[in-house]
Design a protein that fits this description.
This protein is α/β, with parallel strands linked by helices. Helix content is 33%, strand content 17%.
Length: 195
């Protein structure tokens, strides 16, 4: 159960009925489309699949399936705020050598590469719809071309890795200003640092 924006309680599986239907995703009985389910079950354990399916969100399932097809991870883990999932992300960060254990139990350290600091302004671009211009001082490109380029960078980027799916609320929870969001990463360090 969760409270919606008006404060009423309703089952989580029905929380996002306002999302428009995606053709071929959720069936009339509320279960996930077989094509989505097949892709996800081949990459997820039963617990992760159940977490995603319980949300009943067609748009989210389509997004996750698209990213799985694009990035081609070996496994997909859907994380919640449970102590078990937090511990999983912590241990995965150590196993992947993204972090190192310290002498104090439960403490780790992460070191970024020297050239891994901040945004590279020379190659950062604003993706704009056709006909929109922000001026010469801002590096921009056509949105469709930019998305094609980005998808090229992501193609197969998670081979041999575990894709982590997390959920957050931008802004206050249970508010008209709440914005639900999903994060997909293969960095256990990113997940661990957010807990």
């Amino acid at each position: 159960m969760r409270a919606d924006r008006r404060g009423s309680r309703r089952p989580l599986a029905r929380a996002d009925r306002r999302i428009r239907r995606y053709p071929g995703s959720r069936k009339r009985d509320g279960t996930m489309n077989e094509q989505f389910a097949e892709v996800l079950k081949n990459k997820m354990d039963a617990s992760s699949f159940a977490k995603l399916d319980a949300l009943g969100n067609d748009k989210l399932c389509a997004f996750v399936v698209d990213v799985v097809g694009l990035c081609r991870p070996d496994k997909v883990k859907v994380c919640d705020d449970s102590p078990a999932d937090i511990a999983f992300c912590r241990q995965l960060a150590i196993d992947n050598r993204e972090e190192r254990s310290l002498a104090v139990k439960g403490h780790t350290a992460h070191f970024d590469g020297y050239f891994d600091q901040g945004r590279d302004k020379e190659v950062t671009k604003y993706l704009l719809p056709k006909g929109m211009d922000l001026g010469e001082r801002l590096n921009s490109m056509d949105r469709d071309e930019g998305l094609k380029e980005i998808r090229g960078f992501f193609a197969g980027a998670m081979k041999g890795r575990t894709m982590l799916v997390r959920f957050f609320c931008l802004g206050p929870t249970n508010s008209a200003f709440s914005i639900s969001c999903a994060q997909i990463t293969d960095s256990a360090y990113v997940c661990h640092s957010e807990d």
